[in-house]
Design goal:
The chain is an alpha+beta fold. It is 24% helix and 36% strand. The chain has a 3-stranded mixed sheet with strand order 2-1-8, with helices on one face. A 3-stranded antiparallel sheet has the order 4-3-7, with no helix packed on it. Strands 5-6 form a two-stranded antiparallel sheet. A hairpin with a 7-residue loop joins strand 5 and strand 6. Helix 1 packs across helix 2. It is elongated. Bound molecules: zinc ion. Zinc ion binds next to loops.
Length: 112
């Protein structure tokens, strides 16, 4: 993911939600599997909204597997770059379907 493009998208939704009021704080949720650098994202948001503060929270990934398992995956490696290596903790199958935790979302804004 490109931090600049994601930041632009998040700031755009925050501005729409704020309806011309000043955004004091925005909370952004970054999925555990989102292939983005959190410091870069924070920096790009700060460039677009210099008078707002940004809280970035990590959202844990959730997967669904063919064996019936649904929940937190077993993670072998994870990093800002590339897709992490993960599997089903129950049957050890690689890369079960990701239900959540692979995107960056605007969670909340505070305005005044
Ligand atoms: Zn499984």
């Amino acid at each position: 993911m490109d931090a600049k493009a994601v930041a632009a998208e998040i700031v755009q939704s925050a501005k729409e939600a704020a309806k011309k009021m000043h955004i004091t704080t925005m909370t952004v949720e970054v999925g555990q599997f989102a292939t983005i650098s959190v410091p870069d994202l924070a920096k790009e948001i700060a460039l677009l909204l210099p008078f707002s503060s940004v809280d970035i929270e990590e959202k844990k990934a959730r997967v669904k597997c063919g064996c019936g398992f649904e929940g937190a995956p077993e993670i072998q490696t994870s990093g800002a770059e590339g897709t992490p290596d993960f599997s089903c903790p129950k049957c050890k199958k690689k890369y079960p379907q990701v239900l959540e935790g692979d995107s960056v979302e605007l969670k909340d804004i505070e305005v005044e």
